[in-house]
Amino acid sequence: MSGSIQPRTLIALPLLAALIFSTGCPKKTADLELEAARAAMDEARKKKANDCAQETYQAAEAAIAEAKRLAEAGEIEDAKKKAGEAKALAEQAAAASRPGCDEKKTADDEGPKEKVTDATAANMNMKLGDAVGTIYFDYNDATIREDSKAVLSRVAEVMSKDQGLKVEVEGHCDVRGSTEYNLHLGERRARSVMKYLVAQGVEPKQVEIISYGEERPVDMGMSEEAHQRNRRAELKPQ
Amino acid sequence: MRRPRDEVILRRLCPHAPLLLLALTAVALPAQAQTEAGKRTVIEIGSPDFRPYPLAIPDIRDMAGEKTPAPAIREMTDTLRWNFDLAATFKVLDPKSYIADPKKEGLAAASIKFEDWVNVGADGLIKGGVTVAGDTLKADLRFFDVASGRQLVQKSYTGKVEDAKRFARAFSDEVIFALTGTRGIFQTRLAAVRKTKSGRELWVMDLDGEGATAVTNNGSINLLPAWSRNGQELIFTSYIRHNPNLYSTPVGGGRPRLLSGERGLNTGGAMSPDGSKLALTLSRDGNSEIYVMNADGTGLKRLTNEWAIDSSPSWSPNGKRIAFVSSRWGDPHIFVMNADGTGVKRITDRGTYNQTPDWSPKGDLIAFTARDERNVFDIFTVNPETKEIRRLTQDQGNNEEPSFSPDGNHIVFTSTREGKSQIWIMAVDGSNQRRITKKGGFTTPAWSPYLVK
């Protein structure tokens, strides 16, 4: 019996070592993410975010707890993601906090900072009202930027609680580049938004995407600022 | 031995006439090198001693003897001159320099003093006589080789006054064919998108920008026109039913027909040279990929499978390969693959932003748009075998969306050099650039195939 165990152990040992190594590294990184999230929470707390932006602050708190739980359960990748969300929410709550505030007002005030167009938000379905708007992209890129994540997390939070809510995500590009390529780039942007929302608990059937490429610019200018305003995804309640 | 120069001439002028090569080398360099073999004349672009073929086009005569010719006759003269100015291989000699007496000279070779035309430097001479009676028009148009005094083309046209331009275009094509052995392009047309207040509509126009008519007028966004191989329909993407579907619509007007209505984008419909297949870009599988289907919409098959954007298919003239844009290496570049999706090869090694490939009907070049280091867009060509790149536009605003003429000698494109985006035409070597439209707001031009049998 023991004769047959020994070779197995010999094989198992390096495997185990490899396992520890492979999980060890990301675990450390998840700790860093958690640490960053906690720091952001501290900052938010200092600014009285738990009074001013109560919902967001509490969401951040919940996210950080969830991230901790996931990290302990060994779900390192998910923990990292959740910690990132927590950090974004905490920062958002902090940014929204100033004396004499309330959650509703601060959500509106955040607009320019996060480049949410209030004009778009004004047309929105009341339930999604504060959460929906426009997010922006880098040149020839469809990656969700850090400054958009808080907005999208808020949308996801509202939408995941009420599956009757639906949005259409419109992808847009600046006017440079070819008509056809920009149609596809615009759709990639819209799809990035959809994927982000779905990853945060929104049902795929709640999100439709469409690309208008460079055909519906909001700014007809040719300046870098104009281009930036046109590289966007608009979330429109259906 | 062949000189390389002759091969250039051959490719440009007469790809299917090996006889011409013999004739060229034999005749060598007299200025009016008319060959016995095919009555064809040496014209060569791009070499240091290139000399465009000098052509005299005196005013078309009003055979009724009116002092002031009818407007239709004036229009005919102008159209002939405009056409041969456009063709970079020709130079229309200034009419003010002509010394022949128009009163004494008739239409027949016997009545023409050819020395007078030799002396103004003409190799070729176009003459015409027109009779206008009421709304009918009769035209007799002729083309002569000045050196030999021989009449090479004679055509009679009868029709309405408003046909004047059409006859002039048809005759221009006859002259081109007589000289080069390839079909002229003057009876082809251009399709383009025009921005309107409410959206984007498809338009078609003649090469000189005249006769512009709207093909769609639905107030929606209609984009990316491409011609069917028979020139009777435009294939395009429209948001008319919200989702950007691919449709086909008769150029002369009529209801659009749905070609592809997959969820997501349906763009860039390109008909194969034999008209049996349609290449297109769809995003139905969650990413922009190139597909091919039968012209009747059956047998959809996916050709690419990449995380990146693959789009804008353009067929090689033999239908065996497809050029396309892919961002699979990060930045968009021009790639080529076999028509079944195998053998993918990157063609553009330079630049960081290369788009809108259009494969020349001659097969040897792919025209495309590239963004240079100053963030300016310009037109380039690349040889798909050697990957040799040639720049066709520079320092003249943004130049984009090239589309080859059916003879492969010219390229239509958009340019912002005069402000708003307008349509321009140039020779395939970048020479002889001229604006076609008179107003801005035109994008994505597409040159028709030959429209007249």
How is the CATH topology of the largest domain in chain A named?
60s Ribosomal Protein L30, Chain: A
Known CATH architecture of the largest domain in chain B: 6 Propeller
Biggest interchain interface, per-side counts:
A-B, 19 and 35 residues
Q: CATH superfamily name of the largest domain in chain A?
A: OmpA-like domain
Tally of individual helices of chain B: 5
Based on CA atoms alone, the radius of gyration of chain B comes out at: 23 Å
- The oligomerization state is heterodimer
Number of domains of chain A: 2
**What profile does the largest beta sheet of chain A have?**
4 strands, mixed
The geometry of chain A reads as: globular
CATH fold-level assignment of the largest domain in chain B = Neuraminidase
Determine Rg of chain A (CA atoms, Å): 22 Å
Instruction: List the strand order in the largest sheet of chain A.
Output: 1-4-2-3
In the CATH scheme, the class of the largest domain in chain B would be Mainly Beta
Task: Explain this structure.
The complex is a heterodimer of chains A (238) and B (453). Chain A has 238 residues and is an alpha+beta fold. Chain A has two domains: 94 residues; 126 residues, OmpA-like domain (60s Ribosomal Protein L30, Chain: A), CATH 3.30.1330. Chain A is 62% helix and 9% strand. Chain A has ten helices and four strands. Chain A has a four-stranded mixed beta sheet. The longest helix of chain A has 45 residues. The relative contact order of chain A is 0.10. Chain B has 453 residues and is mostly beta strands. Chain B folds into three domains: 51 residues, no CATH class; 129 residues, Rossmann fold; 259 residues, TolB, C-terminal domain (Neuraminidase). Chain B is built from five helices and 30 strands. In chain B, strands 1, 2, 3, 4, 5 and 6 form a six-stranded mixed beta sheet that branches. In chain B, strands 9-8-7-30 form a four-stranded antiparallel beta sheet, with no helix packed on it. Chain B has a four-stranded antiparallel beta sheet with strand order 10-11-12-13, with no helix packed on it. In chain B, a hairpin with a 6-residue loop joins strand 27 and strand 28. In chain B, helix 3 runs parallel beside helix 5. The radius of gyration of chain B is 23 Å and the shape is elongated. The relative contact order of chain B is 0.09. The N terminus of chain B is likely disordered. The chains are: A alpha+beta (238), B mainly beta (453).
